[in-house]
Amino acid sequence: MFKIIWLTAAAIVGLGWIAYGIWWLKEYFEEKKRPKPTTKHLEEVKKSFDDYVKKMESFKKPTYKHDNGKPQG
After folding, report:
1. pLDDT at residue 40, rounded to an integer
2. How does pLDDT run across 3-60, given as a tens digit for each residue?
3. Cα three-residue angle 48-52-47, rounded to 5 degrees
4. Residue 53 class from Cβ within 10 Å (0-12 exposed, 13-18 middle, 19+ buried)?
5. 22: part of which helix (H) or strand (E)?
6. What is the pTM for the complete model shown?
7. How many CA atoms lie within 13 A of 53 on its CB side?
8. 48 phi and psi, to 5 degrees?
9. Which of 9, 26, 60, 71 is the most exposed place for a label (fewest CB within 10 A)?
């Protein structure tokens, strides 16, 4: 009688681990398909980079004159 109880308990635990493994794999593959959420820090970095790019588009390189009077650049 005691062996039957242990075998039944082992079967139930084994089936539980198998069900957990299947559930974990399902969640793992679904998470890979979802787009990654953007964080507040990432949004701030993107915004500052866009501002920098806009600033550099309107930037004009200054020209300096050498001692001999010819413009550089």
Report:
1. 93
2. 999 999 999 999 999 999 999 999 999 999 988 888 999 999 999 999 999 999 988 8
3. 25
4. exposed
5. helix 2-33
6. 0.48
7. 6
8. -65, -35
9. 60
Tokens for 57, please give them. 């588009």
**Matching residue, tokens 């539980």:** 16
Q: Which two tokens stand for residue 65?
A: 């004159």
> What does each C-alpha distance from 73 to 59, 60, 62, 64 come to in angstroms?
15, 12, 9, 8
Confidence of residue 73 (pLDDT cuts 50, 70, 90): low
What size, in residues, is the chain?
73
Can you read off the two tokens belonging to residue 40? 């507040």
